[in-house]
Automatic annotation (TrEMBL):
Gene3D superfamilies: Aspartate Aminotransferase, domain 1, Type I PLP-dependent aspartate aminotransferase-like (Major domain). The keyword Transit peptide applies. Belongs to the class-III pyridoxal-phosphate-dependent aminotransferase family. Homotetramer. The lineage of its organism: Eukaryota, Viridiplantae, Streptophyta, Embryophyta, Tracheophyta. GO terms for molecular function: alanine-glyoxylate transaminase activity; pyridoxal phosphate binding. This is alanine--glyoxylate transaminase. Its EC number is 2.6.1.44. Keywords: Aminotransferase, Mitochondrion, Pyridoxal phosphate, Transferase, Transit peptide. It comes from Medicago truncatula (Barrel medic). The keyword Mitochondrion applies.
Amino acid sequence: MAALQSLLKRTTKPNRSDLLACRPFSSLRSSSATATQTITTPPPQIPPFDHQPHPYYGPSADEVFSKRKQFLGPSLFHFYQKPLNIVEGKMQYLYDEAGRRYLDAFAGIVTVSAGHCHPDILNAIFEQSKLLQHATTIYLHHAIADFAEALAAKMPGNLKVVYFVNSGSEANELAMLMARLYTGNLGMISLRNAYHGGSSSTMGLTALNTWKYPLPEGEIHHVMNPDPYRGVFGADADSYAKDVQDHIDYGTSRKVAGFIAETIQGVGGAVELVPGYLKNVYDIVHKAGGVCIADEVQTGFGRTGSHYWGFETQGVIPDIVTMAKGIGNGFAIRSCSYNSRNLQV
């Protein structure tokens, strides 16, 4: 993430009406001996798009930035030395205050899966809002049960019970709570370079110093990251799995509550796990009395391109699956699905 921020801060201010949000690598200065030569190839143009943004009469970027610095917490960061003032979105595009169009390659940081202001989603929101805007679970409403049924239908195996919460951090915190209550053990295992949330509990599962504060983390073990390109064991899944077994043998009572991993790491960089790793580790964790949790916040809902869930690329079925972001296309809907046959908390 730090490297990405550094790259984006070097991005120059757009000087055309329609540009890609990030300049291609070919347009950046070379870091080799020819660094004095500037490549002058113009950046590619994004395709025409049949949408005219509305005129914007709101506060300028400078005014918004000034108010943000005055009233919002200083821990919030931004991309670019002069942040974009985004005022409108349509499908895969965003518009700034001057009407310039940008391709949202982030999808709102993996959040807007179906595009900005998708007409079908807007219509569903509008029609529902005319009838009822909120319903608590202490009363009945068919949409909650219908949605849970549809989500369970997308799950393999016996992952058929759904619990809705408000954030990805809360989903992971709930998963950790369930693992500890169900097993009666405290020890949790996660990967180095992992990100699982910013709450006081999930910060312990996270293993990136950028996203951690000096707070008590509880009984959490961070094992080697099975990175096939930069990891100490290369693409040797057995050696990485043995590291997990060693942590259980020497760092715990040989009993653990659970293991959690992103199938493809996101915040720590797009890092795929060594093939076969999760299958090996899930067996080890189950033998130690723990449950296996798949964090699908960024890899779920078809984002891998080949499977609906990221864990399917590793040929495993977790005991608990957490998801967020894209599930609500920007609305605060996140959930935790678990195996109803095995987990009775």
